User: Fold these one by one.
Assistant:
Number 1:
Amino acid sequence: MSKQILILKDKCKGCNLCVKACSFGAISVVEKIAVIDAAKCSYCGACEPACKFKAIEIKVDDIDRSSFSAYKGLWVYGENRDGVLAEVVYELVGEGRKLADKLKVELSVVIIGDKTQNLADDLFSYGVDNVYYIENKLLKDYDTNSYTKILEEAIEAHKPEIVLFGATSEGRSVAPRLAARVKTGLTADCTALDITADGDLAQTRPAFGGNIMATILCRTRPQLSTVRPHVMQKAAKLAKKGKKIELKSTIVEKDVVTKVLEFIKETRENVNLTESDIIIGAGRGVGSEENLKLIHQLAEKLGGVVGASRACVDAGWIDHFHQVGQTGKTVHPKIYIACGISGAIQHLAGMSSSDIIIAINKDADAPIFNVADLGIVGDVFTIIPALLKSL
Amino acid sequence: MHIVVCIKQVPDATQVKIDPKTNTLDRSSAPAILNPYDAHAVQAAVDLKKAYGGKVSVITMGPMQARDIIRKSLEYGADEGVLLSDRAFAGSDTLATSYIISKGLEKINSTDPIDLIICGKQAIDGDTAQVGPGIARRLNITQLTYVNKIVSVNLETREIIVHRVIDQGYEVVKAKLPCVITVEKEINELIYSSLPEMIKAARYVAPMWGVTEIGADLSQMGLKGSPTTVRKIFAPPEREGGERLTGSTTEIVNNLVNKLLEKIV
């Protein structure tokens, strides 16, 4: 066991403060002494500062870094389709550059596909040092098996210390399979990354439906993370020259085990939801499917799209594709107008990084007002028609 | 057709409350439920059983109380279940968890060959979506993630065709069986249980397998077998509430329009 948690029995008063601080329900007080249930404890350290009597000691053995020196450099997974890089790649390059500079290592992008070489020059202009690429007709469509095989071989050959993936459906498919292949740690859906004093990647992510944030380290190399799109800043243009390196791989037809028969570009609004500058969010307060028409009208008038809270989707008023929040989409528009949305933490998790939040709600105490830049306590059905008239 | 569904017991995130004094989760406020995505995974398996015949098994890793979600799955129409439970499993991250569950699946497969494994897209407590692909890799079979429709299964050619949701739309994909699919909620509507299924479920006690039963390697599980380690847990940063617009409706709307123009231009 690399971790130990001790209750100093002479100091513990059985006051229950640690019990309340524990998110995992791992502490109970038995005969006025705190007892830790090792099966539930995650050694997160939340109880240690909560104890006023310094009765809790957590000993975390240092990560064994002796084998880490063989691993150097930061990689970004260059997700692409039809010869175009996914938007998130530029965000990862922006963040990756900062982290690579802190570690004083090179930043590389690895691109797998059938049209990849020509993407390199563009990436160099965003400060990328190396582009590892493989170009093969067999790799036209994303296929988890062959893609992870190539990545595993590339990691084996070049040994990066960090690999960042977009937390897109592709990134979230390829990364966990790769982690199981190379037997290393993977942290999902990170919203903040940093380098610790020891040179480890500190990966911060929301957990429990956005109720808490956790910072996670990895005790093996490489360290893998998927990073939530629209959170990191896009890379700035830098006049830089980089190196193109072709990946050697033994991919043959039988490695490609899935066949994409057809790709259907979605015409539904969900395509636009994550890219839209203006989102009108509808909540339970809107009251019915019929009433949603007003929200659609406003969206149309402003050139935005309609988002929805879980309550609205669960009521069957609107398709799940519109759902914003922890179990829906994370959005980052310039303007988010929350109409009749109370502001449950799960909803806030998906939209609180919007540039400007406007809230319209009858309930003056609705939590949505705590995050809104502009709050209007009033009836959606009075305010919006008036707003529509004035536009 | 033998379908196995991997399920997880989770705290109902929609009912988790934050203790305002300590800024931590009040877990006692949240009842333990079958992960909502997994409920749809079970339903998808039951629908396939109806169409193609066969059997639906479920498997979960967790404490004794996790038998509740096996019962719930039987209510939805699953035939049997297995609980993987052992103190040695505690503290496992997604890599170690995928190892343990894949060992359980191997044991099931040795006596009752599996044609298809279905997982929910992700669990609502961790939201990682990592265990499904991890299991697929451990078993060295194909994975199809984010499936929102099963188009067809051909047991003679051993092929499955599904719709996979991707960021720009969806793709129609074909793969060989056995494979792992992870499903979205919109794959189906949950059907209420029939009384005989509920009675059968209520009486069902799933067998429990530990480290010995699944023949797993202790070094690959628990904290020891988990490369990721939680270093810090904290409350999310709060966004400050801003200005309230007051007055008559006309005043409010004019004020709002002006402010918006100001901020955009």
Number 2:
Amino acid sequence: MIDKISPSLEAAVAGIQDGATILIGGFGTAGMPSALIDALIAQGARDLVIVNNNAGNGDTGLAALLKARRVRKIICSFPRQADSHVFDALYRAGEIELELTPQGNLAERIRAAGAGIGGFFSPTGYGTELAAGKETRLIDGRHYVLEYPIHADYALIKAHRGDRWGNLVYRKTARNFGPIMAMAARCTIAQVSEVVELGDIDPETVVTPGIFVQRVVLQGAQS
Amino acid sequence: MNRLSRDQIAARVARDIPEGAYVNLGIGLPTMVGAHLPADREIFLHSENGLLGMGPPPAAGEEDEDLINAGKQPVTLLAGGSYFHHADSFAMMRGGHLDICVLGAFQVSRTGDLANWHTGAPDAIPAVGGAMDLAIGAKRVFVMMEHQTRDGASKIVERCTYPLTGLACVSRIYTDLAVLDVTPQGLAVREIVDGLAFEELERITGIPLLHASE
């Protein structure tokens, strides 16, 4: 019997090695897998490369991971926010590397990794400093910038419901990066609010099919 | 002269958004446009974080942390609205499916270059979000901003001095003094506030302007 349900959050993040590249879902705190991030902090992996839209809010979730000094580099579109004080201090002290990417290019680079695309030409950012040094091409009278996929070792995402085969549905705008991150990592770990039986999720409404998910854990699952 | 308030600029922009338009309102000043959209027009508001058919802010106590807009404020979804993931959301922009996006700006050039994401100050932490995708994606890009900085410098310039968001991407500029179209010939003044002469607007702006041909 295939059962992707992890018995605990600790078991769900087991094996994440130092230096791993990890996609973390969420747009601000909507869709952020905070229980998995807390488990990752307890697990201890360091020197991580993190991919997220933002760079943490307040002192919890991703901000807590940064505060614990586990992150070497962050790839994101919008690090600076009213409550991004943890990132701001690390950045100003030169203690974290930032790769800034326009949000749509970030999403498409993640999608491309999951879809097996080796690179793509995007019009976004052409002629700006974020495209400096990148290869460009004129196609049918429009300028494009070559962007590369973002592959990852792990994805930590938050979904609403999941089953033991890894099928997922999300809730409202907490969906955001979850479905594309699930496709782009070698091992995708989904924190869910509810574990349901096979067949309980209408197959017509499955958003992330289980092939993209390796582990599912209930967000409150304790070891 | 009768300078428009920010609310009046928002109302002026709203007048130009037609029934059936798919529209993205950028964070900050453009968000104010939503409150001025006439109730008798069906307009589809898109938010970059994955919703179409965005409704007004919820009543106090009805907020849902999983239902937010690009500015991370709580919103609602209209009947008929939908949720989708980030790659689809940005395909709606980049793929040319949005009719209009409304953005704020630090500067707009005579040729429609936009600077709105970064001041370039050495100590500023850069953050771009969806600004560059929006700038080049929508069929028409409306910029909404005050005509001048607090120091009185024109924000409409020959060439942007702040870091660029997109090249030749702005269609129309709405300010507290005028409405201007970006045309192949230059900036054409469509409207001007009461009590301000064309020549005075041109002096304040600091670059040659054209009269819009109706």
